[in-house]
Amino acid sequence: DPALIYDLGGKFDKSFNEAAFGGAERWAAETGGTYRDIEMQSEAQREQALRRLAESGSNPIVMTGFAFSSVLEQVAPDYPDTTFAIIDGYVDAPNVRNINFSEHEGSYLVGMLAAMASETGTVSFVGGMDIPLIRRFACGYAQGAVAANADVNVIVNYTGTTPAAWNDPVRGGEITSAQISQGSDVVYAAAGGTGVGVLQTAADSGILSIGVDSNQNYMHPGQVLTSMLKRVDNAVFDVFSAGTDVETGSFVMDLASGGVGWALDENNESLITEDMRAAMAAAEASIASGETVVHDYTSDNSCPVSVD
Amino acid sequence: MELRGISKAFGPVQANKDINIRVRKGTIHGIIGENGAGKSTLMSILYGFYRSDSGEVLIDGKPTQITDSLAAIRAGIGMVFQHFKLVENFTVLENVILGAEGGALLQPSKARARKLLTQLADDYELSVDPDAVVEDLNVGHQQRVEILKALYRQANILILDEPTGVLTPAEADHLFRILRGLKEQGKTIILITHKLREIMEVTDEVSVMRRGEMVATVNTADTNPSELAELMVGRKVLLDVQKTPAQPGEVVVSVRNLQVIDRHGVERLRGIDLDVRAGEILGIAGVAGNGQSQLLEVLAGMMPGTGTMTMNGADMDLSLRRDNARTRREDSIAHVHEDRHRCGLILDFMAWENVAFGYHDRPEYQKNALLMDNAAILEDAKGKIERFDVRPPNPMLTAESFSGGNQQKIVLAREIERNPDLLLVGQPTRGVDIGAIEFIHKRLIELRDQGKAILLVSVELDEILSLSDRIIVMFDGKIMGERDPEQTNAQELGLLMAGVVGDSVTGDAA
Amino acid sequence: MSSRNMPKWADVLLVPLFSLVIAFAISALVILAIGEDPIRAMELMVTGSLGSTYGWGYTLYYTTNFLLTGLAVSIAFQAKLFNIGGEGQALIGGLGVALVCLYVPWPNWWTAMIGAILASAVFGALWAAIPAYLQARRGSHIVITTIMFNFIAASVLNYMLSHVLRPPASMDPATARFASELRLPRLADVLEPFGIAFSRSGPANVMLFVALAFCVLAYVMMSRTKLGFEIRAFGQSEPAAHYAGISAFRIIMIAMLISGALSGVMAVNSVMGGPQRLVMNAVEGAGFIGIAVALMGRSHPIGIIAPALLFGFLFQGGSELAIETTIPREMIVIIQALVIMFTGALDNLVRQPLEAMFALGRRKS
Amino acid sequence: MDLATIVQILESTLRLATPLLFTCLAGLFSERAGIFDIGLEGKLLVAAFFSAAFAFYTGSAWLGLLAGIAASVVFALIHGFASITFRGNQLISGVAINFLAAGMTVVVAQSLFHQGGRTPPLSGNARFERIDLPFADALRDVPVIGPLYSNVLSGNSVLVYLGLLAVPLTWWVLYRTRFGLRLRAVGENPAAVDTAGVSVVRMRYYAVIIAGVLCGIGGAYLSTSLAAGFVKDMSAGRGYIALAALIFAKWRPWQALVAVLLFGMLEAIANRWPNLDLGLITLPNQFMAALPYILTVVILAGFVGKAIPPRAGGEPYVKER
Ligand SMILES: Nc1ncnc2c1ncn2[C@@H]1O[C@H](COP(=O)(O)OP(=O)(O)OP(=O)(O)O)[C@@H](O)[C@H]1O
Ligand SMILES: Nc1ncnc2c1ncn2[C@@H]1O[C@H](COP(=O)(O)OP(=O)(O)OP(=O)(O)O)[C@@H](O)[C@H]1O
Ligand SMILES: [Mg+2]
Ligand SMILES: [Mg+2]
């Protein structure tokens, strides 16, 4: 059977891990198959969780989160017959499938929407843990906002420097309040479970928010501008469907391949004007064709627009 | 008021056995008995602080259930405990109203209480500043607060548990005046003490307790001190200890201008000078709390002081920057602490471990540089237990499973068998039965006869008189005078203990 | 804690045992309440932790942690000091391990292990030293200060891992991996020469033997040396220790330094023995479990071995439970809480009826 | 720093100080009565969970509040049972309470909601509404006072005001009522209270129950006001910070308010500027997070005035040895 290990935010973070869970569930529903999954409680348990699944014969094993990289590097060689898939990480081993997303591209799109929807000309970003991966979101978002409105002011904050940053809604809410007092009227949360607090505070204070990873538009209908979709669900679904034959190597899921995108549904229809839709369509086409290149923060650890 | 068939056990200790006692209304009734006879326990039961295992209480002829202190208060009983029950950082007023506020809000209660207190103060010579914080008051005044508490609750029966133990004679006299005044107002007073003089002075009737039992109740007018003493200890008191005259030798320890201020900033010793010679017992008499305990602790290196102290000619460091109790032991000073439960023993340690306690770093107890030689200690302990007739003679029992007298023997065995040049002894026979007392006294004399110096502190005048070769009386941290036991008596010492030299009272005792 | 009314063996064995039974019974009720089968849960825990050498590999790994933290709490308890700061001391000990493993070119694993033990002991001891000093000199309540130091330690580690020790390319708040020569031999390696096959996956390693050796050493120290005598005396009665000339300052400092050092050494197991790098929260609450272990083991250096194994079993069994059932891993936190409550705070609930029973028995005979 | 920033920091301070305030006052009642309470964290956590869970089921934040209080009081009674009735070690009992709460909340949440130890997000009446104080709108434009009144003071959850009222109320109860006199006395010298005819056990139970109620409100605030639902470990050490504030305040109510506002402000500042640039040095987030604990240790060390706890604190009251 295939198996899935979630990162510390937990299976029900409404975002990244929940997307993975959604993919696994979809696979189970469609194929009638069964799978195992594990939520860890602490950093120190990563290795045990991974080994436990490998020991008990699960194959392939998908894990969500860059933080597994270092552990998988150790574990993968011990189980040569098991295929591992890591989302957001990179491990150079023959039995590992590395899946990465072009979050900067998706973030670019929602950044444009944010700038277009903003009345104050100030938009903001709440990141989870302050790491290059999340800066990639921030950087894409800022580029998109600037592209839509050259005078836009982008405020960027991170929740913390440890995994606890993924699961601190109270702090997320407070940071959002601070951003609102600085004039922001659209906030983008790329912070796992912390984002729940960001979206909540935004809704409470009557400003717009942007969800991440999963489609979070439903959480506050009419108050979430859109969600940056990161199709972790598809990634998991693909691996589970391929089963033990899953291809190893590195795979990038970008806008062109449908790996990232933005959400439009009945909850946010009214917020997205015709102009916005048109702008989105143009931008998507331009990025997919390679005409517009969104700078990837992690390629050189820098951003053309400030994201500190 | 009457108590019938009261019994109370604390675990294995039977503190009260089938006690019957009647106290007539409007009298002062004394209860005497040795330490540990069960006096406090009995009164605590009457006050509902402890619950008796069996027996009943009758007040004005009516059986009364005294389940807790509230019930006792309601029955009109007030009690002044041996150890005051005051909230030290509250004011007098707050202490007085605590539990009897008379309303949910404090301000009106306080106003009411303030008025009543002034009145009580006038009626009974009980003046205390209602706004003073209790911990700033001296013991005499604290005791007045306790009495006021009881009167404020309109107590008709007032119990005082050893009220004079901590008082100067002048304060005690003042207290007795108060008590007589209360009696005239029709209150009933129960006075617990083991001082015969006080019984004779103020009581109308007296009951005697011995080892948890009530042995007699007599009219004070019909009895005399020696009869009471006999009743108390259960046989003719042989207070004379067989001993030969002392042959004092060299000065072993010499103390000059010793002063001590304790942790709370209270002056405990105000310039003590004394010498103890080899082969003599120097007894220190005094009311508890006049600095005797501190004197022993300073000499034993448990408490810092100023002044000079030489031991066998060598200077000791009184500041305790270099010295401590351990180095004093190395300088051949042994110490039998007055509180064997708190200090002298580790109750949870076995007897054999207690025998090494304090000397556990001695070379004879070490196997090598790292390990102790437990077998050697055990062997040593067996010998000491045998020689000091500790019962049961089992070194593997924990110290707390021995009776008080046997615990004291363990301590003495440990300290005396070290053959110290100077032995400091505090209250050697407190809470110890008669047989053990004789044994302990004999051992102390023996040590003296071996040419060792002994400094003895005791609140028991008889003990001081019969053991000492010289007697020093302490009062308020000072030495009031020195007497030869052959040429003095309890009366004279009593006056000195009260701070009376010749005919004048020193200090601001009153 | 001792009692006149009961034989010592009953006090040492029966009281913790009954407490444990109550704690387990309540836990079973909780499992039942959330709709799971406690018997099956127990079976799963037993097979998962003791049913294979893979399980044993983890059980004994956790046991090693708890032996060391349990010992740490015990030594402090013996001096009547409640060191609740084992968690922080172990975190800082982990920092010591990481520093010597990363920056000292050790020739082989065992020199590295000795170096790491020394470093972690020093780091842990230093972290305990400030609360100890404040208690000894200024009377600051050691329970409160050690709690505060746990949080401060977490912040220090958090800062070190996110800003100082994290390799430039890495996104994890964790140090780089140590050189592979420094990997401690696991039980599989140790048992191989004896022809015993043991799973290579479980991280139990030579530190288990080091921890057991520390237990024996601590036992000898407490029962056979002057220092142990003085620590016990001080713990039983501070005034008596003063009377005997035992310096309170010295005993508080030494007991806490030993305690902190032992907590620190625990990190050698969980850092060098486990992930081979320092990660966030490498201690995983072992500092607190040490309290439960010490309470059950009556603070006896040998007495804590069985409870440490019990908690190792619970810890490993608990993670199996989380995988195999819908019972979350936090179930073992509940069990841990109940054990601490019943053996530590509600001791009298078990003791009083037992004492009454013994008193009754004595009266009859 | 402009006024808007200051106003935002103060707003945030008040919000973040509120759970600390309730918890700190809880500790004050308990410890003033001689019962040490390091189980504040656990009570806060368990209250946060149960109020969120009940608010979710009933759709009413007020019912959630009651459930949170009930849960917290149950935990307080366990503490009382161990430390008053069975005269156990209060510190150990507190530690156990904290673990029990940490485990219990997740296990129950998982079994009820299957969301990894969370409750579903709360909305509408399941959360406490914000209340606008009178004249908030009218005064908004008055310089300085306006924003302070209209933004900082006004527009908070009803529980924030309850917390602010609890301070004078606590002071009044403690120093102006019979109950307060007895409560303080029982923490200083229980034997005095006992011999005065007042039950020590009863007084101490009252105290721990009040502590339970206050922690319950604090926990409810956390999950149904400050946040919109429960997440695992959401108390995040606030119980310990409250304990620190209690020591900081030397067990006095007004000072407790000052202490929690100070600690709340530290948290607000750390949220606003993760790395606080002071010109000469940059203080990392972690330093700000550790500051309450560091300050408390400094206070405990007695370098800044001595913190003397209630004298009978931590000791079970034993009449017969
Ligand atoms: N709370 C207690 N727990 C256990 N034993 C006690 C307790 N109180 C008193 N005892 C024991 O009961 C016996 C009687 O003690 P009690 O205090 O009544 O004597 P007393 O006559 O008042 O003596 P003293 O003159 O020393 O005050 C003693 O053996 C004492 O050790
Ligand atoms: N007969 C009496 N003599 C002296 N004091 C009394 C008497 N009856 C009641 N009191 C005192 O009056 C006060 C009020 O009694 P009440 O029964 O209301 O106290 P309580 O219920 O213990 O107090 P609280 O409700 O404040 O905790 C108590 O302090 C009690 O001690
Ligand atoms: Mg007495
Ligand atoms: Mg009432």
From TrEMBL, chain B:
Keywords: ATP-binding, Nucleotide-binding. The keyword NAD does not apply. It holds the Pfam family ABC_tran. InterPro entries: AAA+_ATPase (IPR003593), ABC_carbohydrate_import_ATPase (IPR050107), ABC_transporter-like_ATP-bd (IPR003439), ABC_transporter-like_CS (IPR017871), P-loop_NTPase (IPR027417). One of its GO terms (molecular function) is ATP binding. It comes from the Bacteria. PROSITE patterns: ABC_TRANSPORTER_1, ABC_TRANSPORTER_2. This is ABC transporter ATP-binding protein. Residues 1-236, 253-501 form the ABC transporter domain. The keyword Nucleotide-binding applies.
From TrEMBL, chain C:
InterPro entries: ABC_transp_permease. It comes from the Bacteria. The chain crosses the membrane at residues 12-35, 55-77, 89-106, 112-130, 142-161, 204-222, 243-266, 278-295, 302-319, 331-350. Signal peptide: none annotated. Keywords: Cell membrane, Membrane, Transmembrane, Transmembrane helix. It holds the Pfam family BPD_transp_2. It is a multi-pass membrane protein. It is found in: Cell membrane. PANTHER family: ABC TRANSPORTER, PERMEASE PROTEIN, GUANOSINE ABC TRANSPORTER PERMEASE PROTEIN NUPP. This is ABC transporter permease. The lineage of its organism: Bacteria, Pseudomonadati, Pseudomonadota, Alphaproteobacteria, Rhodobacterales.
Automatic annotation (TrEMBL), chain D:
Signal peptide: none annotated. It comes from the Bacteria. The chain crosses the membrane at residues 12-30, 42-59, 91-113, 158-175, 205-231, 251-270, 290-308. Keywords: Cell membrane, Membrane, Transmembrane, Transmembrane helix. It is a multi-pass membrane protein. It is found in: Cell membrane. Its main location: membrane. It holds the Pfam family BPD_transp_2. This is ABC transporter permease. It comes from Pararhodobacter zhoushanensis. The lineage of its organism: Bacteria, Pseudomonadati, Pseudomonadota, Alphaproteobacteria, Rhodobacterales.
